[in-house]
């Protein structure tokens, strides 16, 4: 009975581990296996060893796409986190207004990803879209098709509209955990608004913000549907992120190079997540 009791936690984890094996580890292993082949069909393939990895890691296009992906993720987090925290601070702590605000913030999160670029392309249309007509009336020559800066701005605004609600809702959940006595103590100490945010509110949001940071990095780093729907990586290659290069190889039936690119893509993401978890664990260690 003693041994059974010690093994019981692992037995309870077996269903989750089995699902992880089926949907994660086995497909990843198959992709890794195919990355060493030149694939014509699944039945007709030839061994090429590490040729695809060597070609990928020696390609300047790969590093350009990597820098664009990292730059986009950095831009997105620099915009969405301050904005999401600001929105969360403005939400009332109770009442109908709070409920309505949280619902409005959650609405973009349920919009299908393939619909988002269609919605925004219709909004910025100069003839029929509300935003496009307003831009045209202002005299601004907005051209997301051939101006790289405008394309980046449109994708950043679109992604912020889609995901800033997640950051705001998670930040609000941290703020909701603060007891009124902490605000009363800060008022007695005559703390400024910045001091209240720095020493009361920000520590309460730290855990959920770290979670949001990880989620937003992973999602923005893997952006595909929205960026492809706006300008398919253009103009030129200005918005050709790693995910778009991978999609291009998949559409071209280059399964061997695509498999190698997927493994490298996974390795980069895994390294970032590992570093994030290390930093998070270090933050949670109590200071003496």
Would you write up a description of this structure?
- The chain has 288 residues and is mostly helical.
- It has a single domain, classed as MetI-like (MetI-like fold), CATH 1.10.3720.
- The protein is built from twelve helices and two strands, in the order αββααααααααααα.
- The chain has a two-stranded antiparallel ribbon.
- β1 and β2 form a beta hairpin.
- α7 crosses α9.
- The mean pLDDT is 88.
Task: Please name the defining characteristics of this protein.
288 residues, mainly alpha, MetI-like fold, two-stranded antiparallel sheet, 2 strands, 74% helix, 2% strand
Element layout with pairings:
Layout lengths: L1 H33 L2 E3 L5 E3 L3 H7 L2 H31 L5 H11 L9 H8 L6 H9 L9 H29 L3 H9 L4 H29 L3 H7 L10 H10 L3 H30 L4
Antiparallel strand pairs: 1-2
Helix pairs in contact: 1-12, 3-7, 3-9, 4-7, 5-10, 7-9, 7-10, 9-12, 11-12
Largest sheet: 2 strands, antiparallel
Alpha carbon gyration radius = 24 Å
Number of strands: 2
Average pLDDT score: 88
Low-confidence sequence ranges: none
CATH classification class = Mainly Alpha
CATH topology, by name, is: MetI-like fold
Shape: globular
Terminal-residue CA separation? 40 Å
The second-level CATH architecture is Orthogonal Bundle
Strand content: under 5%
SSE order, as H and E?
HEEHHHHHHHHHHH
Question: CATH-wise, what's the superfamily?
Answer: MetI-like
């Amino acid at each position: 009975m003693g041994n059974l009791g010690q093994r019981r936690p692992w037995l309870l984890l077996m269903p989750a581990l089995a699902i992880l094996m089926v949907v994660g580890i086995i497909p990843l292993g198959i992709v890794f296996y195919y990355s060493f082949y030149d694939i014509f069909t699944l039945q007709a393939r030839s061994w090429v060893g590490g040729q695809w990895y060597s070609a990928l890691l020696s390609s300047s296009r790969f590093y350009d796409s990597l820098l664009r992906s990292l730059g986009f993720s950095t831009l997105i987090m620099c915009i969405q986190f301050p904005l999401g925290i600001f929105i969360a601070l403005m939400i009332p702590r109770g009442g109908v207004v709070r409920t309505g605000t949280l619902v409005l913030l959650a609405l973009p999160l349920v919009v299908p990803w393939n619909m988002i670029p269609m919605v925004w392309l219709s909004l910025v249309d100069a003839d029929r879209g509300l935003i496009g007509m307003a831009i045209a009336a202002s005299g601004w020559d907005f051209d997301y098709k051939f101006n790289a800066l405008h394309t980046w701005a449109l994708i950043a605004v679109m992604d912020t509209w889609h995901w800033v609600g997640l950051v705001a809702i998670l930040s609000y959940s941290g703020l909701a955990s603060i007891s009124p006595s902490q605000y009363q103590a800060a008022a007695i100490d005559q703390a400024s608004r910045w001091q209240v945010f720095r020493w009361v509110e920000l520590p309460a949001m730290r855990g959920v913000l770290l979670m949001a940071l990880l989620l937003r990095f992973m999602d923005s780093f893997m952006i595909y549907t929205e960026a492809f729907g706006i300008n398919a990586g253009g103009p030129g290659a200005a918005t050709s992120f790693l995910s778009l290069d991978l999609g291009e190889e998949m559409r071209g039936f280059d399964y061997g190079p695509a498999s190698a690119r997927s493994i490298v893509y996974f390795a980069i993401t895994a390294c970032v997540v590992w570093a994030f978890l290390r930093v998070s664990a270090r933050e949670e260690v109590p200071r003496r």
